[in-house]
Amino acid sequence: MSLIAGHLEPYLVLSGLLFSIGSFGFLARRNAISMLMSVEIMLNAVNIAVVAFGAFIPALAGEGIAFAMLIIAVAAAEAILLGKRLGLNPAEVVRVVGEGAGSSRMLQVRGPMMASRNWKDATMKVSIWQKDMSIISDALADTLTPAPLFAASAPIYHAAQALGLGDQDTASVMAVLEHMVGDSA
User: Fold this and answer.
1) In angstroms, rounded to a whole number, what is the distance separating the alpha carbons of residues 132 and 34?
2) How far apart are CA 147 and CA 1, in angstroms?
3) pTM strictly above 0.85
4) For 41, which DSSP code?
5) pLDDT band, residue 1 (cuts 50/70/90)
6) Are the C-beta atoms of 41 and 22 separated by less than 8 Å?
């Protein structure tokens, strides 16, 4: 266990503080960029808690990071699709957001694939995520751990599998979101 002094509580306090800051920022601001940055802070807060739980709860060993990546990939697809539906070039959305405070490693890696709608060269297949999601789901159930973000993002990956994208990269969640709004190109 590499986390400081083997205590979960400091990470949960940090997560709670960041989530509170993000919530306040989202509710207090009317500027869309500030609101999106606040949502990013809230997502990062949740990811800190998830990774910490994965480090401290034996049943979740190693799954915290995978869970965080699962959430971030869907968030990246949502941002790109929103930009596209606002009339922006998806590749330009990836570039602009990727250079700003809203960037993440997932956006940097999967964003260009999403923008070009090319997820055939898989570095992480949807079918592998399905296996990981099953392990995470079992661990959450075994530990009675609530995970609303997992519950919200899991159906997107299930839908990707149902659409025949199992051998494609997880960036293909973009196709699922496009399918949900009737936009396939």
Assistant:
1) 33
2) 23
3) no
4) H
5) very low
6) yes
